[in-house]
Amino acid sequence: MPRFLSLILSLGILPMNVVPAQGATDSLAQAREAFRQAYARVDTEREPAPDDEMLRRYPLYPYLEAARIRRALADVAAAPGKTSDETLGAADEHAASFLMHHAGEPVAAGLRGVWLASLAKRRQWTEFLQHAEAGQGAEHADSVLECHALHARVALDRTVGLVPLIAARWLTPRSIPDCQVPFDWLRDQGELTAQLIERRVKLALRENNPGFARQIMAALPEQRAAPLRQWAALLQNPRTQIDALIAAPERQIDAEGLLAGWTRLARTDRDAAIVRYEALVHARNLTPSSVSRYALALALPLSWDRRAESLTYFRRVQPADLDDTGLEWQARAALWAQDWPLVTRSIAAMTDQQRGLARWRYWAGRAAEQTGDTDLAQHLYQSILPDDNFYSMMAAAHLGQALAPHPEKLVRDDVLLRRIERQPAFVRSRELLRLNMRAQAHAEWNYGLGILPDETRPQAIHLARRWGWYDQAVATATQHRVFNAYEVLYPRPYDMEVAAAERFSGVSGELVYGVIRQESLYRSDAVSSAGARGLMQMLPETARRISRQWKRPAPQIQDLFDPRTNVLLGAAYLRELIDRFNGQTIVALAGYNAGPGASARWLPARAIAADIWIENIPYNETRNYVQRILWHQLVFSWLKTGEPQKTSAWLVNIVPQVAPQAEKQLAIQRVAPRAERSASEKQ
Fold first, then answer.
1. Helix (H) and strand (E) counts for the chain?
2. Residue 658's pLDDT is what?
3. CA dihedral defined by 71, 72, 73, 75, rounded to 10 degrees?
4. Which of 136, 234, 534, 671 has the fewest Cβ atoms surrounding its Cβ within 10 A?
């Protein structure tokens, strides 16, 4: 028997196309539990007992093997010099044979990187290159492994054609210590030129990484380093440096560096930039084309703050410098100022693609309506209705029409679904999901999806929905540009919890569901990078505060993964925000996403139309968040009633914050029965 085949059999590696027959899913419960226990013991069990046939034939058994190989490689790395050659050889052989047998499969992806990193750490460069090259360039997806590959070629003196590869890796704005040996080799060959060093310094400066740029520029001749040091100083202390340049107009400065420093000042201290604008233009004798870019750099952050001065600086920007982003913010500033002719001109100057978006067709319609062109306004509003989004809602409101979404029929083929469900990758994906190994489940899902014929892939949306894997159903639908299959993509799996939260807080169930869909896509185990947890993404400290105020038991962190607790406290928090902002649900939603402090800062000094206020939310994420939740609420209401939905209630003004005494009264009303609340609060 060949040695490789013998090793495969000794590891228990089985073909991954062995799948239980339909109807045998329940019979996997015992094997699943055995796998769960064995997988949990991997890090502590150095010499596991032989696995029985049931476990070896379980669809996820290769994941157990991969975990054991990773553990063995970690043991080797943890005891350098203390591991016998025989042990090292066995660990490497096991890894090599496993990766060869499962080449291209998700189970091999993570292990391959671990093994290559282990080989690199042990300076096993010949074997490293052999298997890195066998991966068909996959090492280049990982900058560390790419550096190891370059290091290996230097160590083995395989340097033909190496200079351009290392030079390309050199050109990065961040420090990459794993590439130091290749970089040193490049320098020793006389190929790390001043031009290459300068290019990397500029990359770091453009990425606002002046500290690293200073480290790199130390290798440059003084004449080339001086303007780059000035650029770095402008980024690190823009106000002081710009004052110095105003005071010494004869002083030479890199034009790109000066604009970068000015942009930094404008974004960190708007008022300081306004005070210095004219002096800088005069002192540096800026040309009209240069002045335009400096004006734009100041106009943008002023527009984010909804300051009237933004339009003064937008007027100084030449048309060639206004890309779609600049035109969008000029249009928003014009909306805030109610300058409807400027709104029209800004939209007209956008690219065809941008101008054709529902967002800007809607605002073109609003501008036409405000300037007396009713026919054009009606035409534009009508054109938006089929788009099924926030702007469709608002267009319907201006037309005085109720709006029904335009559902897309996603026909379910149960025979085909059963066939897909039996495919090995989908069997593994479901088992991984049951074991809460979501990252691996997602990888297997995408692997299986890629194997399916194009015409059958949309059926997988139904499959994920049937499994209760709602976030995967939505992700798969988005991948296949299926957006309006509302019956499938807007499930209501937490009706009991949402109904209880509605009774408790007075916030409509449809709005609560809208927040759940946007915050977590129905994942009760979701955890954000900021530590928010559960369906409505509650921060632990916020949840504890809300529970005290609403006289509920203080939740433990784990309680926030319980839908009953999370939805109840999330709805109560949303109610608190609605009360805090005087019943203004739109402002409350913005506060739920960006924090109530941000929402309070964004409140206008005078009443302004809600659609204009939303459009001028400076955070793209928060603006989209509010718009999507309002649309989600409409869809859930339509699915519940089957009737077109009136949206005229959103044609309201956003008003300044209420006085402290009135806010205190609202806090008292927080616990009032829902029936006593005003209609506007229930929106």
1. 39, 2
2. 63
3. 90
4. 136
The full length of the chain comes to 683
**Residue whose token pair is 């014929």:** 453
Does 505-682 carry CATH code 3.50.50.60?
no
Looking at residue 656, its amino acid is P
CATH number of this structure's domain 414-482:
1.10.1240
Of 506, 494, 511, 532, nearest to 633 by C-alpha is: 511
pLDDT 10s digits, 448-499: 999 999 999 999 999 999 999 999 999 999 999 999 999 999 999 999 999 9
Paired tokens of 166: 């290392």
* Burial group, residue 142, by CB count within 10 angstroms (0-12, 13-18, 19+): middle
User: Rounded to whole angstroms, how far apart are CA atoms 325 and 296?
Assistant: 11
What token pair was written down for 551? 């006289």
Q: What is the pLDDT of residues 394-448, one digit of tens each?
A: 999 999 999 999 999 999 999 999 999 999 999 999 999 999 999 999 999 999 9
Tokens coding 258? 């000066």
- Strands 608-609 and 653-654 come out as antiparallel
CA angle 257, 261, 262 (to 5 degrees): 115
Report yes or no: 494 and 516 within 8 Å, Cβ to Cβ. Answer: yes
Q: Which ranges in the chain are annotated with CATH 1.10.530.10?
A: 505-682
Contact by Cβ (8 Å): 438, 70: no
Block residue for tokens 């995408």: 446
CA–CA distance from 278 to each of 206, 240, 251 (Å)?
25, 16, 18
Q: Can you read off the two tokens belonging to residue 177?
A: 């210590």
Closest CA to 48 of 27, 34, 60, 29: 34
Region of 553 please: left (phi>0), alpha (psi -120 to 50) or beta. Answer: beta
Which candidate, 567, 586, 582, places its Cα nearest to that of 512?
567
Contact in structure between 337 and 329 (CB atoms under 8 Å):
no
In DSSP terms, 609 is beta-bridged to 653
Could you tell me which of 311, 330, 332 has the C-alpha nearest to residue 322? 330
Distances (CA, A) of 397 to 361, 363, 402, 634, 642: 15, 14, 7, 13, 19
DSSP conformation letters of 65-118: HHHHHHHHHHHHHHSTTTS-HHHHHHHHHHHHHHHHHTTTSHHHHHHHHHHHHH
Distance CA 29, CA 467 (A): 16
* Residue whose token pair is 């540096």: 284
CA distance 655 to 628: 22
466: left (phi over 0), alpha (psi -120 to 50) or beta: alpha
Q: Which run of H or E residues covers position 654?
A: strand 653-654
Over residues 295-334, the pLDDT tens digits come to: 999 999 999 999 999 999 999 999 999 999 999 999 999 9
Exposure string for 373-383, b = 16+ CB within 10 A, e = fewer: beeebbebbeb
pLDDT at position 602 is 97
Per-residue confidence band for 172, with pLDDT thresholds at 50, 70 and 90: very high
In the predicted structure, residue 129 carries a pLDDT above the cut 50: yes
Rounded percentage of the chain residues whose pLDDT exceeds 70: 89
